[in-house]
Amino acid sequence: MSTIEKGRDVLTLINVFTVAPQKQQELVNVLIEASRATMRHLPGFVSANIHRSLDGKKVVNYAQWKSMADFEAMQKNPEAMPHMKAAAALAQFEPILCEVSDAIKVE
Amino acid sequence: MSTIEKGRDVLTLINVFTVAPQKQQELVNVLIEASRATMRHLPGFVSANIHRSLDGKKVVNYAQWKSMADFEAMQKNPEAMPHMKAAAALAQFEPILCEVSDAIKVE
């Protein structure tokens, strides 16, 4: 279980992948494998949450890192690169680096 | 604090807004107000998590509803409509309806 909180000192990466529906499950598998085998062991990793869109056309990774420095170090890490290339070969992607402005729950 | 979990019976709406940087904070405010004043009181609301991108160009609402029926009812709710129109007047948006394929946390 991952958590979203206002004011927590975490960098959120929302990466939106646009994919052909027949490749959606393959991309989901690549991102899960990347997160389990490699990302979770890197310094500053907090969580990766892989979502598939119901229309088959998108995959979204809602990921959390402790800091921008940790995220940037991951991008240069030789163990992470093959996973990122595998994902990039399957889909276009738009990474959005964010902070949480507010988290509103049901009362 | 909101939570992301695999296998939980929840509909996830990831709504990506593209906004002029000078209007980003206004859009964040509109979405927070909509969630606090109206959405959280509607049937099936679970959470809304408003994110601002660090480059100023995006706002992302990571929202959870108990079911597709609850989400669709919200879209037709006369109390919700003015909030959605206010957001649409400030930005373009791309709603992505999802389910969680996996949630990976640091060990």
Greatest interface (CB-CB under 8 A), with counts per chain: A-B, 42 and 42 residues
Decide which structural class fits the backbone of chain A.
alpha+beta
Mean pLDDT of chain A: 95
Order of helices and strands of chain A: EEHEEHHE
Strand composition percent of chain A: 35-45%
| Largest β sheet strand count, sense and barrel closure of chain A | 4 strands, antiparallel
Q: In angstroms, what separates the terminal alpha carbons of chain A?
A: 20 Å
Query: Going across the major beta sheet of chain A, what is the strand order?
Result: 3-4-2-5
Helix content class of chain A: 25-40%
Write the layout of secondary structure elements.
The structure is a homodimer of 107-residue chains.
Chain A: E1 2-4, E2 11-19, H1 24-37, E3 45-53, E4 58-65, H2 68-76, H3 81-90, E5 91-105
Antiparallel strand pairs in A: 2-4, 2-5, 3-4
Helix pairs in contact in A: 1-3
Task: Write up what this structure looks like.
The structure is a homodimer of 107-residue chains. With 107 residues, chain A is α+β, with helices and mostly antiparallel strands. Chain A has three helices and five strands; from the N terminus they run E-E-H-E-E-H-H-E. Chain A has helices spanning 24-37, 68-76, 81-90, and strands spanning 2-4, 11-19, 45-53, 58-65, 91-105. A four-stranded antiparallel sheet of chain A has the order 3-4-2-5. In chain A, a hairpin with a 4-residue loop joins strand 3 (45-53) and strand 4. The radius of gyration of chain A is 14 Å and the shape is globular. Chain A starts with a strand and ends with a strand. The model of chain A has no long low-confidence stretch (mean pLDDT 95). Chains A and B meet through strand 1, strand 2, helix 1, strand 3 and strand 4 of A and strand 1, strand 2, helix 1, strand 3 and strand 4 of B.
